[in-house]
């Protein structure tokens, strides 16, 4: 066999591979997966029926343009259908956005720590990442992010609520920031956890996009709508950003099953958002429980909580796993724990208490 191997782009060197949340152990006593910010509820019966019916035609390609879903979303949000672009999960759309705006010599700004996919998709594009540290309270430092803009900046991610801290930025500060961003720099408001927000200070990105051609909003069916495994997300953006997303989309990337499941999920929104309401109640219980134990927990508006554990991060994650819940450690930094089913949250709270007592 030849010693040489195909030449790969130098930009790919050193890219950390995306680490999915660890699955729950199958051989332990009980094991709950609280490591991927998934929705713990099983699919609604109506969604399941639609998916099963759609599966009968998977010998055919899906609707390339996702027409039915795009129309449904356009009506739901009161935007032109030409402003809606779908993709293989919102991470797929995020990657298309970077691909459409940035390449070698360009810069992409985002807060850090934030969603782990941002550095990966930026590096793949050949652009440079500019990471702006969160404030000591774990919130986006929007003033510092605006200060970091240069002539080379092409795209800025604002993750609201932020993954993994759950913290939010409010309307006033976000508008002040947007006023400082030049019109030729794209601002992506990543609202993957939008439906879990209860803080009235947080604006709906779709309202902000309407008056600002350089603002794009990212949403997903993976979290509140419980379709993580089907891979469907979308952006709302003005032309030509939405058109660029159609150009960079993987052809037929969103399956027909996913398209139809997303449509019925939008129509079953009351029931799904009722489930979100229950998770929000659980979130309150988990946060209050942790605080009562003496932990410092940032105010979260997402379906997870953040514990800044520093050097004790891995030990804490291991203690949780022994207790029966798998959480998401970011070694040296902190642990993100998804709010799951009541029983899982109980096990987690108990494990957290045990860990604290052992300190
Ligand atoms: C902030 C944020 N954006 C986007 C995504 C991507 O979700 P999906 O690709 O499933 O839509 C996630 C998933 O964890 C996320 O946390």
Automatic annotation (TrEMBL):
Residues 33-349 form the Aminotransferase class I/classII large domain. Residues 1-12 have a biased composition (Basic and acidic residues). PROSITE patterns: AA_TRANSFER_CLASS_2. Keywords: Aminotransferase, Pyridoxal phosphate, Transferase. The keyword Transferase applies. GO terms for biological process: L-histidine biosynthetic process. The modification N6-(pyridoxal phosphate)lysine is found at residue 223. Residues 1-23 are annotated as: Disordered. Its EC number is 2.6.1.57. One of its GO terms (molecular function) is histidinol-phosphate transaminase activity. It holds the Pfam family Aminotran_1_2. It catalyses: an aromatic L-alpha-amino acid + 2-oxoglutarate = an aromatic oxo-acid + L-glutamate. Aminotransferase that catalyzes the conversion of aromatic amino acids and 2-oxoglutarate into corresponding aromatic oxo acids and L-glutamate. Homodimer. Belongs to the class-II pyridoxal-phosphate-dependent aminotransferase family. This is Aromatic amino acid aminotransferase. The gene is pat.
């Amino acid at each position: 066999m030849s010693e040489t191997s195909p030449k790969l782009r130098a930009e790919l060197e050193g890219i950390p591979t995306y680490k999915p949340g660890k699955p729950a152990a199958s051989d332990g006593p009980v094991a709950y997966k609280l490591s991927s910010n998934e929705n713990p509820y099983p699919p609604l019966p109506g969604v399941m029926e639609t998916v099963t019916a759609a599966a009968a035609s998977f010998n055919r390609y899906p609707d390339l343009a996702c027409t039915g879903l795009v129309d449904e979303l356009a009506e739901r949000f009161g935007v032109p259908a030409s402003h809606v672009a779908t993709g293989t999960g919102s991470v797929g759309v995020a990657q298309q956005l970077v691909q459409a705006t940035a390449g070698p010599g360009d810069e992409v700004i985002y807060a850090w720590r934030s969603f782990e996919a941002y550095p990966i998709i930026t590096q793949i594009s050949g652009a440079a990442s500019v990471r702006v540290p969160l404030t000591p309270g774990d919130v986006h430092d929007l003033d510092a992010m605006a200060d970091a803009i240069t002539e080379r900046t092409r795209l800025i991610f604002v993750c609201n609520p932020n993954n993994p801290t759950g913290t939010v930025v409010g309307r006033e500060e976000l508008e002040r920031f947007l006023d400082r961003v030049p019109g030729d720099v794209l601002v992506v408001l990543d609202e993957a956890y939008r439906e879990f927000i209860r803080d009235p200070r947080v604006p709906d990105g779709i309202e902000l996009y309407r008056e600002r051609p350089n603002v794009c909003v990212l949403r997903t069916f993976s979290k509140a709508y419980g379709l993580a495994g089907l891979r469907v997300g979308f952006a709302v953006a003005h032309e030509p950003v939405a058109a660029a997303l159609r150009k960079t989309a993987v052809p037929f990337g969103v399956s027909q099953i996913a398209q139809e499941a997303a449509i019925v999920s939008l129509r079953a929104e009351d029931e799904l958002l009722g489930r979100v309401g229950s998770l929000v109640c659980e979130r309150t219980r988990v946060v209050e429980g942790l605080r009562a134990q003496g932990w410092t927990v940032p105010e979260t508006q997402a379906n997870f909580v953040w514990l800044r554990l520093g050097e004790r991060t891995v030990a804490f994650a291991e203690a949780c796993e022994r207790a029966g819940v798998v959480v998401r450690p970011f070694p040296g930094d902190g642990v993100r724990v998804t709010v799951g089913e009541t029983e899982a949250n109980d096990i987690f709270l108990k494990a957290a208490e045990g860990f604290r007592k052992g300190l």
